[in-house]
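The data are set out underneath:

___
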Amino acid sequence: MVDEDIVPDVVTFNILLGAVCKQGTTTQAHQVLKLMNQKGVKPNEITNRIMIRMYCLQGEMDKAKDVIDSIEIQGVALDLAAYKMLINGYAKRKRKDEALRLAEEMLEKGLTLDAATQNMLRRLTRL
């Protein structure tokens, strides 16, 4: 595709990134992001969610938080799905304070917690 001067768009890159991330290969994921940048394709909220999800599944919450920080630096608002992934990731690792802080941040930004997230936080606070 690239050899024929056809530049993949963000959707194409997100499909590739999603496949790579399901394999849990962070090195390849970063190579895809680098290629996106080289081709002038800007990551979108889906791209960010894919990376957040990968790091959360691997238990690398600090790296997931780094993705969030970079999103916020760009002035992009974090969406409900990204918050839920992070809260879930922190909860699974028994990092109660971080999970609760993110829930508060969500509410401050006018986002609502769904029933599943509320229940998860309730269970977490009982620990």
About this structure: The CA atoms of residues 32 and 38 lie 10 Å apart. The mean pLDDT is 88. The two ends are 52 Å apart (CA to CA). The first helix runs from residue 10 to 22.
